[in-house]
Specification:
There is one protein chain. The protein is mainly α and 125 residues long. A two-stranded antiparallel sheet has the order 1-2. It has a two-stranded antiparallel ribbon with strand order 3-4. Strand 3 and strand 4 form a beta hairpin.
């Protein structure tokens, strides 16, 4: 199923919300673990430390958020601390700047909103 239509118009089910899955905000959410990080780094021609956080680094950022305390959620995308919502460093101008080459975890991620849409579609079939 093609989800881009849903995501670009109403991310997480909120009209006009862009990049909800690429933004941490006040949620207990992390953009990791990125399993194909080496391949992704080659495509963007950047170093690991420019793009990703390790468990050692990330677990200190949000000690009160359980997903940041789980080593299995790393490496995780580095956050843009210039924005209060803490978006992924590749989320710029309301869109993913690496959309065509984004890692598998980003390509395959389904938020609860999309899971609900998919479940409704299956019920109809």
């Amino acid at each position: 199923m093609e989800y881009l239509e849903y995501c670009s118009k109403s991310c997480l089910g909120y009209e006009g919300n862009h990049g909800g899955c690429c933004t941490v905000g006040d949620r207990n959410f992390i953009m990791g673990g990125i399993e194909d990080y080496e391949e992704f780094l080659q495509k963007v021609d950047r170093t690991f430390s420019e793009v990703f956080m390790t468990y050692e680094e990330g677990s200190k950022l949000f000690p009160e958020r359980s997903v940041y305390q789980d080593p299995n959620n790393y490496p995780a995308f580095r956050l843009n601390f210039l924005d209060q919502a803490l978006p992924c460093i590749f989320y710029k101008n309301n869109q993913c700047s690496v959309y065509d080459i984004r890692p598998r975890s980003c390509r395959e991620y389904l938020c609860q909103y999309l899971k609900d849409i998919e479940a409704q579609a299956i019920k109809i079939i």
